[in-house]
Write a structure and sequence with these properties.
- The protein is built from eleven helices and two strands; from the N terminus they run H-H-H-E-E-H-H-H-H-H-H-H-H.
- With 276 residues, the protein is mostly helical.
- It has one domain.
- The protein starts with a helix and ends in a 9-residue tail after the last helix.
- The relative contact order is 0.15.
- The mean pLDDT is 89.
Length: 276
């Protein structure tokens, strides 16, 4: 009877959301304790933006300067890096260290681990975007949108972009055979996408066959959406289609969210190759 009463009095397990929020706080603290990773994560896009801004200058058309194009492009690249690149490498390292295997053996719902990662990615992406936008306003003549519609568009493009990038980062984390190879395996496609998606080179100056490949992936559409938000209608003529195609931005990012979720559910591994 006493044993039954004790079992009945045992505290209930916290919800997956509550545990996920706690994991998010933990993941963020661990991230900011790694000073070299923090510096590289935030400094890399900023340094590239400053370098490209110093090397290339002048108006590219419609009163838009090439540095303003870079600001919008690097915001998209920062979102991709936070979700796809950094997260993919981080999860591969967790798998290699056995962290995933240990967490899978605890009573904690597995979804809480991913909620924590998503929170960490969201915080990093917000801070990185804020830093790039501040530099764009201070140095490169970017004007923050005055219309509520543009800020609303920024919000949904940002949320869809972060979600798609995060799901793809979770999925790609299963590709590297080890944590040592994760950086090379995951960074390469990320850099290639930046070259063909209008981050380093204006999208209108790329060969049509390259822009066709870029159009399959989310980065090109994130950058395109951010250009509408921060450059306005004056930059529409610089787009290959002559318009920002916001409907297609939403469609492609939404499709990648669905596709990324399917990839996560079908390919994610909690253990290293050859275990279990």
């Amino acid at each position: 009877m006493t044993r039954t009463r004790n079992a009945a009095a045992a505290p209930a397990m916290p919800s997956a959301l509550r545990l996920g929020l706690a994991r998010g706080v933990l993941e963020t603290k661990l991230f900011f304790r790694e000073k070299d990773a923090v510096v590289f994560t935030f400094a890399f896009p900023i340094v590239l933006l400053v370098l490209f801004g110093a090397i290339f200058s002048g108006e590219i058309g419609g009163g838009i300067t090439i540095t303003q194009l870079y600001v919008a492009g690097f915001i998209g690249a920062g979102v991709l890096a936070a979700g796809f690149q950094n997260l993919g490498i981080g999860i591969a390292a967790d798998r290699e260290r056995g962290t995933l295997k240990r967490l899978a053996g605890t009573p904690m719902p597995r979804s809480a681990y991913f909620i924590g990662k998503v929170i960490n990615v969201l915080i990093v992406a917000i801070l990185e975007t804020a830093a790039l936008l501040a530099i764009g306003v201070a140095w490169y003549g970017i004007e923050p949108p005055r219309e509520a519609a543009r800020w609303a568009a920024f919000a949904w493009i940002f949320v869809l972009g972060v979600t798609a990038s995060t799901l793809l980062g979770i999925a790609v984390s299963s590709v590297p055979r080890s944590a040592q190879s994760a950086a090379a395996v995951i960074t390469l496609p990320s850099i290639v996408l930046q070259f063909i998606s209008g981050v380093f080179i204006p999208i209108g100056q790329l060969p049509e066959w390259l822009t066709g490949i870029a159009a399959v992936f989310p980065l090109k559409w994130m950058c395109q959406g951010f250009r509408w938000v921060f450059l306005g209608d004056a930059g529409a003529a610089l787009e290959p289609a002559g318009t920002y195609e916001l409907d297609r931005v939403a469609l492609v990012l939404g499709a990648w969210i669905i596709g990324g979720l399917v990839l996560c559910l079908t390919t994610f591994r909690w253990q290293r190759r050859g275990e279990g």
